[in-house]
Structure formats: C-alpha cells, structure tokens
Amino acid sequence: MKFASCTAAILFAALVPAAAQVVSHAPTPMQKMGAPASASKSAPSQVLSVTGKPVVRINGSVLTDRDLLREMFAIFPYAKQHGGGFPKSQEADIRRGAMAMIEYEELVYQDAQRRKMTVPQAQVKKGMEAYRASFGTEDNFKLYLNTELGGSMQQLERQVRRSLLIEHYLKVEVEDKSKVTEAEARAYYAKNPKAFHHGEAVAFQTISFMPAETASADVKQKAKLKAEDVLKQAKATKTFEQFGLLAEKFSEDDFHVNMGDHKMVEASRLPPELLTAIHKLKTGQVSGVLQFGSFYTIVRLNERVLAGSVPFADIKSKLLSDLQKTKYDRMRGDLDKRLREHAKVEEL
Q1: For the chain, how are helix, strand and coil distributed in percent, rounded to 5?
Q2: Band of pLDDT at residue 29, cut at 50, 70 and 90
Q3: Hey, which CATH number is domain 200-306, 3.30.1490.20, 3.10.50.40, 3.40.710.10, 3.20.20.70?
Q4: How far apart are CA 190 and CA 193, in angstroms?
C-alpha cells in the first residue's frame, strides 16, 4: 500500500485552518499516474486556501476541497518548490486530474462496499503501522493526526481501511484481469509483423575536418592533408577506444566530445554517399579519407544490423509489459465509465 505522506503534504496539513480538520472521505494515498517529470518554470499560483467546502457529491457522499487539494499535491509533488502552490500554466489540468481521481476512488469505494468486500483487520493494523512509520518521526505523525484527523486514531483506521479496500478492489477488478499471457503476446506478435520489423542500422565513429565552403583552396588543401596524416594513425587503431581518442584529439565535428561515436542509427537516415562508403567496410574497419563537399571524414564501422524482424524472445518482456499496460488502462477506463453510468456525480 502506498501512502502520500511527503513532507510537502505534512507541512500543508500544519497550515490548514482548524475549521477544516476532519473530512468524511480521505483520498486513497496511492501512486498517481501522469505526475509531471519535473517542476515547471512557470510562475506559481497562490497557495490554495482550504475551507472544507464541498467540491463534489457522489451518490450523496461529499468530498471537499481538502480532499481535492491533497490529491493535487499527490499529482504534483513539486508544489513545495513553488511556494506551496501550482504553476499557473498547469494548475487547471492538475485540478481536473485530481477531481477525476477522487471521484473515481469514491465510486470504487462505494461499489466495494455495495459488494460487501472487506479487508482483514490484521492487514489494516499492518497498514496503519506502515503509514505511521512513513512520516519519519513521531512528531510529524502527531502533527498530521491532530491537524488532518482531529487526533482521532479511529478516523485514521477508517482512512487506511478505505485505502486498502480500494486497492483490493482495483487488484481484483483491474490488475488481475489485465494480465497478459505469453500465448497472447505471441499471438499479437504474429498478427502484427510490421510492428517488429526494423530497417538496416549502423553504428560508427568519425574523425572530421571541416573547412568552410567559402574557405580558400589553400585552407581546404591543408584540411585534406591533415586528414590524410591522421588517417595513418586511424588505420593503426584496433579498438573503439583507440579510434575514439584520435577523434577527441583531432575531429572538428560535434561527435568528437563522445569519441566520435554516432551510436546506432537507421541507415535510411544517413546521406547516400556516406551509407555507400559504410557499406564497403567490414566491422572494425576504417575507411579512407572521404570527401563530402568541403569536409574530409574518416569513418570506423563498429556494428551493422541488417534489416529484419526482432525475434520474439528479444521483445517478449517489453511486449508483455506494453500489452498489459494497454489492457490495464483500457479496463480502468471501462470501469470508470461503468461505475458512472448509474451514479449521481455532482461537481459543486
């Protein structure tokens, strides 16, 4: 069970007015999907005030702005870096995402109750202990308990039990049912051959000398002579590293900072003249001085992958993961739609 008990949330709890202490429906502190990868540089909004004002009523059960804001902090854990607020450019989207999540969790919770699902007391006790430990110190835990839950351990137990019940419901109705077998993955692989086909690809290094197109004939000749001189050293290299050290020392192209390495690139993306020269090389072989316009380049071929299909064995793990995620997301969306069909959801 994953609880949202980050420092920002604890500090937020400490600043909320006492009038908004106890909520009837604490949100499930689970890991949220779609959280931003990094904090936005846009200006933060003002810290949102919490009054305990209802924001949505679901089949008569009310969720408040405290539930909503707690969920917004879970979706955007970088709020502390924004002075406790949210970037103006993202705030509306964060709010919509948080609203959708608290509605979804409440619908799941109500359906779990309707179906008389339960969570063993021993699991609830273990969950409470883990939640308490997640605050780091007893003082932090007491601050949360007193500010968020009016000092009520009974309220905390209800919150943990609710979270576990939602988690159990989603495991039964979504996670377990979205598992994909190897046979299903093989069938998908067989029916979608184009998805696993790849073109030719090559990995190579370069040492380049790059006089401007408008440079004098003398400058261009000196660049050519320098390339021919370095070629003698390049031909003597036996390894990626040896060629790479020459690239770092002499090359004038952008790849010199990475030992001249272009890594693996699709052959179709290369200029035809360069690809023709590479096709004449064997793995580990160094070309002569190649001229492209006013540039002079030496190439070392490190690897060539012929066009073909990725073997199922090589793609199996990723394919299973991707198919399961797709199926999970679809089933989660279907569940949300199904639960809303007969529910009364009133955003206030």
Answers
A1: 55, 15, 30
A2: very low
A3: 3.10.50.40
A4: 6
